[in-house]
Specification:
binds zinc ion, 6-stranded parallel sheet, NAD(P)-bd_dom_sf, NADP, Quinone Oxidoreductase, Chain A, domain 1, 7-stranded mixed sheet, single chain, EC 1.1.1.2, alpha/beta, oxidoreductase, binds NADP nicotinamide-adenine-dinucleotide phosphate
């Protein structure tokens, strides 16, 4: 296509029209992207990861979703249209990614401390999700189970050449959501780190904790089914909670930092607390539709525990994470699925079939990527 002119392409993708979409009832169709601004980028999508959040949103689990909704916030593709005021030195054809956030106030309000300090993900003024969000100009955000994506350039991140697209995609949400709190809370030499739930986020957390040099990386999973995989990812110990009633006392006070990726409100949170040492930190990143279980105050008091959370990562965090992935050769476990099978992918994902992340692939576009002479 002619660069930078009114696009010849249409925005089409998998649309959810009501909460039944989460059961595999998304419908392929056309939608209107946000009105173009000169700070924007259009991306021809090659790959998009399937995140647990996609399913929460499709079923209106976190509150009413603004249907029609096209989910997917682990987007990789190539720049096909570039605004004259785009940031970051992007060029047409560049291979780029968009994670779970595609706009913040970015200092438009002048006094936003979060954006000023590179913590756009915690912007208190406006956090525009890559789907199910509204931009300042009133346009709606649509995600990456689609052919094209339009996003403000501030949130469009170049992908290092060493990382294949199918692997870069899930890093953009699942990867950075676990990298950021591990880094922030000092996972590294001298620390024992626990990861609860070995799914998409959890498998990244294990690999990051190992890459950051944690002394021990302990996976807490419901069964031993994923034990061998966990060790291959870098785990040093494994706890199967459904298979040992005494797991919490046997391993009591052994962990400094826990990242919990569990999204069920029936999780045994008080027993997870037992695993923490004095001054331990429990970081909840899984986001159950109906909140956390009721907890007692005593573990917090007795062991001076910190119960906290973490939200995705900023553009800076994504860049840092990519650099660590290249430096330490962190390779996510990805199963590539054709974009046409997105409905099956979300059903399988919800049933825990993924090992450990599904990446949807727009096959002709992904093939073209492998052939440099092909026009993208
Ligand atoms: P996922 O691949 O399905 O992984 C979730 C894991 O949680 C499962 O593999 C399972 O691990 C464990 N689990 C599931 N049900 C459980 C239960 N009843 N009790 C204990 N453990 C259970 O999903 P994901 O993509 O990693 O996402 C996980 C959560 O993180 C979702 O709620 C998602 O919305 C949220 N999320 C949050 C952020 C953020 O910024 N905070 C960003 C992205 C995603 P085992 O089989 O090993 O037990
Ligand atoms: Zn996500």
């Amino acid at each position: 296509m002619a660069a930078n002119t009114t696009p010849e392409y249409k925005f089409e993708g998998w649309l959810g029209y009501d909460s039944s979409a989460a059961q595999g009832n998304m419908v392929w169709g056309e939608y209107e992207p946000k009105p173009w601004e000169e700070t924007d980028v259009d991306i021809k999508i090659t790959h998009c990861g399937v995140c647990g959040s996609d399913i929460h949103t499709l079923r209106s689990g976190w509150g009413p979703t603004d249907y029609p909704c096209c989910v997917g916030h682990e987007i990789v593709g190539h720049v096909v249209r570039l605004g004259s005021k785009a940031e970051g030195g992007l060029k047409l054809g560049d291979r780029v990614g968009v994670g779970a956030q595609s706009d913040s106030c970015q200092g438009r309000k002048g006094d936003c401390e979060a954006c000023a300090s590179g913590l756009e993900n915690h912007c208190p003024v406006k956090h525009v999700g890559t789907y199910n969000g509204r931009y300042f100009n009133g346009g709606k955000s649509y995600g990456g189970y689609a052919l094209y994506n339009r996003a403000p350039s501030h949130f469009v991140i170049p992908i290092p050449a060493a990382i294949p697209s199918a692997e870069a995609a899930p890093m953009l949400c699942g990867g950075v959501t676990t990298y950021t709190p591990l880094k922030f809370h000092g996972a590294g030499p001298g620390k024992t780190v626990g990861i609860i739930g070995l799914g998409g986020l959890g498998h990244f957390a294990v690999m990051w904790a190992a890459a950051l040099g944690a002394d021990k990386v302990v996976v807490v999973s419901r069964t031993a089914a994923k034990k061998a995989d966990a060790f291959k990812m870098g785990a040093t110990d494994f706890i199967a909670t459904d298979e040992d009633p005494a797991w919490n006392t046997k391993h009591a006070s052994t962990l400094d930092i826990i990242i919990s990726t569990v999204s069920s409100s029936s999780m045994p949170l008080m027993r997870y607390f037992d695993l923490l040492r004095l001054d331990g930190t429990f970081v909840q990143v899984g986001a159950p539709d109906d909140g956390l279980p009721k907890i007692g105050a005593m573990p917090l008091i007795m062991k001076r525990l910190k119960l906290t959370g973490s939200l995705i990562g900023s553009p800076r965090d994504i860049r840092e994470m990519f650099a660590l992935a290249v430096e330490k050769n962190v390779r996510p476990w990805v199963e590539e699925i054709p974009m046409k099978d997105a409905n099956k992918a979300i059903v399988d994902m919800e049933e825990g079939v993924a090992r450990y992340r599904f990446t949807l692939v727009n096959e002709p576009e992904a093939e073209a990527e492998k052939t440099p002479a092909t026009k993208l």
